Amino acid sequence: MSDNAIIERARRFLDVLRHCQLLGMTVHDADSRGLTLRLPYSTQIIGNPETGVIHGGAITTLMDTTCGISTVCVLPNFEVCPTLDLRIDYMHPAQPNKDVYGFAECYRVTPHVIFTRGYAYQDDPNEPIAHVVGSFMRMGKPGAGKAGAQ
Questions:
Q1: Where is the Thioesterase domain (predicted)?
Q2: Which of 13, 55, 92, 132 is the most buried (most CB within 10 A)?
Q3: What 8-state DSSP symbol labels residue 79?
Q4: What is the rounded distance in angstroms from the CA atom of residue 107 to the CA atom of residue 109?
Q5: Cβ neighbourhood burial of 11 (10 Å; 0-12, 13-18, 19+)
Q6: Continuous H helices in the chain
Q7: Beta partners for 134?
């Protein structure tokens, strides 16, 4: 699949997630290696009004969504893949008034589970805000039943 097709599939996936629409998330980049989403800074996601630091829940949402949508980068057809497990290790708070980017890649694909890893960052991917690992259950193509994941 071409990089343009992967980007389009990732955009369509993101566009149906209402909470991501409300947060203003967009696809920054996507190819067969992985996906990067952008979470724009806004006053609605501030966790500490005194410092302007983004709430950890917004970062968690960004990374869960990024890992989940990264499955479209490796699967030949769209499949429903809900989160089984997600672990996020926070390195430091995000700086106020700056967008946050989330990158995720699928590092192992089995017939039943897809394993992902990634990180959140602002200016430099080499200085991550957080690291994430997640696993996602393959449920197959929509309408294909259990045999669709085979």
A1: 52-127
A2: 132
A3: -
A4: 7
A5: middle
A6: 3-15, 18-23, 56-69
A7: 86, 116
Examine the pLDDT at 148 and tell me if it is beyond 70. no
Most distant pair of Cα atoms in the chain: their distance: 52
Q: Is the pLDDT of residue 60 over 80?
A: yes
Contact 106, 73 (CB under 8 A): yes
Residue 34 token pair = 């992985």
Q: What percent of the chain has pLDDT over 90?
A: 85
**What pLDDT score was predicted for residue 145?**
55
Residues in the chain, total: 150
pLDDT tens-place string over residues 129-143:
999 999 999 998 766
Spatial separation of the C-alpha atoms in residues 14 and 73, rounded to whole Å: 13
Phi-psi map region of 143: left, alpha, beta (phi>0 left; psi -120 to 50 alpha)? left
